[in-house]
Design brief:
Rossmann fold; five-stranded parallel sheet; 7 helices; binds flavin mononucleotide
């Protein structure tokens, strides 16, 4: 079992999200999974700026064989995609920023959601090519987005959409309300860890 952990916790050791990511890594290791870590605070994804987007479109949509500078522009995107495709299980951990994923995390999804590699068109519809694989999204947020506020969360919901579009079976665990209820921080993180353990028991 190969696991990839994709983490964006720029507050380092002060990060509450990192506590969940580290916990999930420990559970995976205890189940003898090989664990590779991609730290997006150090390995920042490339953006789909004009030249790179043109190369991506020419190769992945038009079927052109690229070489030289055109191909080189896609190198980091391809490395991140290949790394993901080698993993049976992916864990993605990041805090909520402005009701969504941090931009760096969105940049990673833009890098790996490559037509022809992780998803494609098939028989007139979309096909997720990562079928049979598992994904776990881990996050913390200052507020809690439940009930009437649920529609304000574009963070977990967006990651779930990205991953299920690629074919993954997706679960998510959120340490929500961690700033709103500071006295409950340890309870919130403890409950999140219990959920991670329960999900990993099904995943691995
Ligand atoms: C730039 C920034 C934007 C944030 N935006 C939101 C937000 O929209 N909603 C929310 O509930 N919390 C928001 N927060 C709070 C964080 O999600 C929360 O403190 C989280 O637990 C931080 O995770 P960390 O301890 O792993 O860094 C934001 C924090 C930062 C730094």
């Amino acid at each position: 079992m190969k696991a990839l952990i994709v983490s964006y916790c720029p507050r380092g050791e002060r990060s509450r999200t990192k506590q969940l990511v580290d916990y999930a890594a420990g559970v995976l290791k205890s189940k003898k999974a090989s664990v590779e870590v991609l730290d997006l605070a150090k390995e920042v994804p490339d953006f789909l700026l004009p030249d790179r987007l043109a190369s991506y479109y020419r190769r992945n949509y038009m079927g052109e064989k690229l070489a030289g500078k055109d191909l080189a522009q896609l190198k980091k995107m391809d490395q991140m995609t290949d790394q993901l495709m080698k993993a049976d299980i992916v864990v993605i951990g990041y805090p909520m920023y402005n009701f969504s994923q941090p931009a760096v995390v969105k940049g990673w999804f833009d890098s790996v959601m490559q037509k022809g590699k992780t998803w494609d068109f098939a028989q007139g519809g979309y096909a997720g090519l990562m079928k049979g694989r598992k994904a776990l999204v881990l996050s913390t947020s200052g507020g809690a987005y439940e009930g009437d506020l649920a529609s304000m969360d574009h963070s977990i919901s967006l990651s779930k959409l990205h991953l299920s579009f690629m074919g993954y079976t997706v679960e998510a665990v959120t340490g929500a309300g961690i700033n709103r209820y500071p006295e409950r921080e340890q309870d919130i993180l403890g409950a999140a860890k219990a959920q991670i353990m329960e999900i990993m028991a099904r995943f691995v």
